[in-house]
Amino acid sequence: MIPLHLHISGFLSYRDPVELDFNAFDLACISGHNGAGKSSLLDAITWSLFGEARGKSTEVINLHADVKAAEVIFTFKHEENVYRVQRSLPRNKSTVLEFQILNPPADPLPKGEGVWKPLTEKTTRETQARIEQHLRLDYETFVNASFFLQGKADQFTQQNASKRKDVLSNILGLEAWEEYKNRTAEKRKKIEAEVETIDGRIAEIDVELAEEEARKIRLGELQTTLNQLSTAREAQETLLQNLKRTAALVEEQRKMTSTLAAALERSRSALAPLESRLAEREADRAAYADLVNRAKEIESAYKAWQNARKELEGLDRLAAEFHEHQKERAPLQEKISVEKAKLEEEKRSLLAEEEEIGKQFSVMSELKNGIEQTQKLLSETEAMVKERIHIENERNSARERQAALKVENETLKSEMNLLKARIETLKSADGATCPLCGQELSKEHRKSTLKQLEEEGKQKGDLFRANQKETSELNNKIAGLESQISALSSAENNRVKYASEVSQLTERWERLQALAKEWEATGKKRLKEVEKVLENGKFAADEQKQLAKLDKELVKLGYDVSAHDKAREKENELRGAEEEFANLKSAKEVSKQIEGEIANLAEERRKRKEEIEEGQKQYDAAFSALKEAEASAPNLDEAERELFRLREEENRARGELGGAQQRVDVLKTLRARKADYEKEREELQKQIARHRTLEQAFGKNGVPALLIEQALPQIEEKANELLDRLSGGNMSIRFVTQTGYKDKKRDDLKETLDIQISDSAGIRNYEMYSGGEAFRVNFAIRLALSEILAQRKGARLQTLVIDEGFGSQDTQGRQRLIEAINLVKNDFAKILVITHLDELKDAFPTRIEVEKNERGSIIKVV
């Protein structure tokens, strides 16, 4: 995979759209300060291809509110074809993924030419799978193969021999075989559980087959019992039919007796209403007779009521006219009262305001004194704030100087350590050539070089100690300044507090002064006007005139309320005469009719009594006959209970017989089922044996061990090819996978993975090397691992990304990194190195500078 073009928008620190054209360079360095967004360029590539960005797959949208989505468009060349992947993630929505191929393919991609053919599938998951299928790489393999991340370059070589195989297994992706082993073990356990279940079922069947003879004996006993119960039940059914015929005759007699009792009760029920009705009509006759006897008295009372009624109607008319005048009077009185109440309320409000104004004059004096005192405190705190700012500036300057001294001493320390190592190397050198410069190593050269190195070391040491002393003095100075700043820490808060108090007190004093002036101008004058109006009673003049006129008209009417009430009471007392007069007229008309009804009701009552007497005689005779029949009747309930008992026993016996027959019949089925279970168990045992074999094959000593053994020669060959170029043909490596035990009595060998290095001095283990030689070995083995990993996935390693040069390197280490990259640059189409060090980035022909401003990260190709 060779990158061609990258477009980023709203992704991580890249708020605004940026473009990066890879066609302009083959070897470049990505530089910028920490946090500027250098590694985010690589995150954009992996996120577009795999939806992964250093574990931040759901946090890639730029945090600014105006960014609506993160979008990356990555164009790359792979196997002579040009592809484009466009992945976008709108805020609070799902990912959108597009995959396209250029048709016809073009390299390099010309602008405005070619047609993009979509390769996008129905779902994002399916599209992702198609991308990985074309690349023949997943995220983990891509990162391990193409990316040399910080601190991971020597992850393989720095492990001890026993752990290197585990690291190699992880790099080659062999951990999948452990998953295969676990899955096989789980499946084997499930099969073993099935075998245990089958064994349990076979044991259950054996228990039932052992009961065959007992079941057959029980079946015969139940058949005999059922035959006996069937005979007894048939005899009881015949007896019950005879008893039912006798009981039916008794029931007929009981029904006739019940019918006679009901008829007698109906006759008695009909007699009671007749007697009640007769008594009512006789009472009506007596009442009407009393009214007729009092006719003269009732007529005289009726005439007196009519006269009282006429008098009351006249007074009602006069009262209506009086009330009409009263209705006109009420609104006028209400308006006069409302107007007076308004004036009295206004007077009370003005008096309260006058009292409040008097109190506020004393408050204004206090406010004036408070303002003067607070202004004085405010001036004092402002002076303290200025002093604090001056001290903080002095402290910050001391801190900056202290930081500069720290950086300088760290550099001096590194340089002194390097000088010390060179001195030790020179002192211990035994050959004829100087290990430092390659010249002839004579006594004079050794002595002069050591003197030069020691003088340089002394100068650096003196400067280092002077810096330490100045740093100590700065610490004391900063501590003193911090103490002064702490003592003045409350000055700013006090300044804000006093300024706020001055503003509030001034505002309140001005508000009170304005209120006092307003009262003198308007309120005081209005109070005098209201008091004068209430004292003279000169308010609601029109309403008072209309009210006086209405009072005169009411006097002229002469309406007497007490006389009206007495007339009303008299009419009410005599009102009952009207009802008695109406009853008298009715009594005269219906008296003859009541006499006829009383005669008819008396005759009907006589007939009902004769009917009841005859019905009682018939009922007594029928009841006597029923008692005789019931005394001689058989016990039908007992016979039915006996039949029910026999039927239940017969059914129970028949059910037991069926169950016993079924238990005998099922034995044949169980024998066949047992044979099937035994056959199935035998097949499952074979599967268990096969799964155990697979578990051994998938374990560390099985297929993964074979794959490692197969990969090691390839890694060794590729690493030696690279190391030959890096060391000028002086170094090579060999992997040793087995070694003998310390116990010489053991004949077998233990598994290991030692790295042996051959050079001009002989063969030594990797652990004996350090510095530049170890770095070359790390670089060669790591690059070999990357290429082998890519080949195993069916891909070609065409792009190499180095993030910060395998961790922190000193000056020599950085120089070796540059030399190693230049040696292998022809093996790759694109090489990108990420760094923030100026001395490293200047060594590359092309720089991609990443900067960060208020709008986010931006890039510039130099």
Description:
The protein has 862 residues and is of the alpha/beta class. The strands form three sheets. A six-stranded antiparallel sheet has the order 2-1-4-5-6-7, with helices on one face. Strands 8-12-13-3-14-15 form a six-stranded mixed sheet. It has a three-stranded antiparallel sheet with strand order 9-10-11, with helices on one face.
Write a brief caption for the model.
By secondary structure, this protein is of the alpha/beta class.
Q: What coarse outline follows from CA principal-axis ratios? A: flat
Tell me the number of strands: 15
Proportion of residues in β-strands: 5-15%
How would you characterize the largest beta sheet? 6 strands, antiparallel
Please write out the topology.
Blueprint: E1 2-9, E2 18-21, E3 27-31, H1 38-50, E4 69-78, E5 81-90, E6 96-103, E7 115-118, H2 124-135, H3 139-146, E8 147-148, H4 161-171, H5 175-209, H6 212-293, H7 295-428, H8 443-487, H9 491-536, H10 541-557, H11 561-574, H12 576-632, H13 636-698, H14 703-726, E9 732-740, E10 749-759, E11 762-765, H15 771-792, E12 799-803, H16 811-824, E13 830-835, H17 838-841, E14 846-853, E15 856-861
Parallel strand pairs: 3-13, 3-14, 8-12, 12-13
Antiparallel strand pairs: 1-2, 1-4, 4-5, 5-6, 6-7, 9-10, 10-11, 14-15
